[in-house]
Amino acid sequence: MSIDRAEVIVTSPDRNFVTLKLTTADGVTGLGDATLNGRELAVVSYLKDHVVPLLIGRDESRIEDTWQFLYRGAYWRRGPVTMAAIAAVDMALWDIKGKTANMPVYQLLGGASRRGLLAYGHASGKTLDELFDSIRSHQEQGYRAIRVQTGVPGLKSIYGIASNATYEANKGVRYDHEPAQRGALPHEEDWDTRSYLRHIPTVFEAVRNEFGPELPLLHDAHHRLTPIQAARLGKSLEPYDLFWLEDCTPAENQEALRLVRRHTTTPLAIGEIFNTVWDYQQIIREQLIDYVRSAVTHTGGITHLKKVLDYASQYQIKSGMHGPTDISPVGMAAAMHLGLAIHNFGIQEYMKHGEKTDAVFEQSFTWQDGYLHPGDRPGLGVELDVDGAGRYPYVQAYLPYNRLHDGTVHDW
Ligand code: EZ4
Ligand code: CO
């Protein structure tokens, strides 16, 4: 038994994706997602130049050993590029193990703990009318939980809202809320925290009045607030009963969340840009968050994220895995298998991929009545059409960045 071939496939059907494809001596294949939005080629190089040569000839059944070898063996630990590369190898090995065992990966992780995964989608609008239409359209698509983002008076373009600039930069190709834009330079957005803090509670009040108390509503502050501002936002949103407030501060300062917690009972979700359990050590132990936002793709794969979530489960903290369009269908499948198996599943973010992406990545998951299920195909249940992928070469794309009115760069 050994890994015979390892290929890194970059494709840009609607946006860029990086996929690792492993093939064993017996001809079994496994796929892993290594997409890091806006920094894709760094992971491609990490894999091609430094990981692929180490994989050839290795026993594909040794998932934990391979993980430890890549993590400890590199000497240089953690970081999004390293952990995305390790994640891709890990996912591909789980895919192979599932196919070899003739079982879907969730069975190897302990079997299903539920019938399906409650998923939330992204509703947005510059104005309340546009936002209400977007919420209704998500309900029509079956969503039973909805993230709400809106424009803020005085700000031209803002995270979470599909903008014409995005549409034009991407030459007419647009995911509704894909923030990365094709082009040689990143797009500049503007930001003003005081306007935002004044406006957002009025939006949630209007949404609750229109849609009633039942619908789970989420919101993403996207790392923009100081601890005391985040505390104030959480407190002012309490009457509207959010499912969660996400990334209220740039949470690399884990202690900051103590201050937020002292002031609000709005549930907090953090971690989409984290990549190891060490980023969560304090905020889980001190119960400073309620949901772990990490994606399988950016947190060292199924093997490592399961350890993070098992740790979180001791504190009644649940999963809320990242699922924007920059997680490839392979990464989404890995999230669904893990989410189905663990006990402390919370919710899964789910944004639909574009048609070209769905044609290149053939997938087994189902979406029914607001619930996702990974399907019962052996492995992860995703196959990549390599020739099809080859028709869409990499296109340079960047995430935007923020400036305040006086020109200061601000967290995006
Ligand atoms: O901005 O995935 O909750 N979702 C998010 C995403 C991130 C993008 C960055 O690549 O915050 O939309
Ligand atoms: Co987010």
From TrEMBL:
<dbReference type="Pfam" id="PF13378">
    <property type="entry name" value="MR_MLE_C"/>
</dbReference>
<dbReference type="InterPro" id="IPR029065">
    <property type="entry name" value="Enolase_C-like"/>
</dbReference>
<dbReference type="GO" id="GO:0009063">
    <property type="term" value="P:amino acid catabolic process"/>
</dbReference>
<protein>
    <submittedName>
        <fullName>D-mannonate dehydratase</fullName>
    </submittedName>
</protein>
<dbReference type="InterPro" id="IPR013342">
    <property type="entry name" value="Mandelate_racemase_C"/>
</dbReference>
<dbReference type="InterPro" id="IPR018110">
    <property type="entry name" value="Mandel_Rmase/mucon_lact_enz_CS"/>
</dbReference>
<dbReference type="InterPro" id="IPR034589">
    <property type="entry name" value="D-mannonate_dehydratase-like"/>
</dbReference>
<dbReference type="GO" id="GO:0016052">
    <property type="term" value="P:carbohydrate catabolic process"/>
</dbReference>
<dbReference type="InterPro" id="IPR036849">
    <property type="entry name" value="Enolase-like_C_sf"/>
</dbReference>
<dbReference type="InterPro" id="IPR034593">
    <property type="entry name" value="DgoD-like"/>
</dbReference>
<dbReference type="GO" id="GO:0000287">
    <property type="term" value="F:magnesium ion binding"/>
</dbReference>
<dbReference type="InterPro" id="IPR029017">
    <property type="entry name" value="Enolase-like_N"/>
</dbReference>
<feature type="domain" description="Mandelate racemase/muconate lactonizing enzyme C-terminal">
    <location>
        <begin position="128"/>
        <end position="267"/>
    </location>
</feature>
<dbReference type="GO" id="GO:0008927">
    <property type="term" value="F:mannonate dehydratase activity"/>
</dbReference>
<dbReference type="InterPro" id="IPR013341">
    <property type="entry name" value="Mandelate_racemase_N_dom"/>
</dbReference>
<dbReference type="Pfam" id="PF02746">
    <property type="entry name" value="MR_MLE_N"/>
</dbReference>
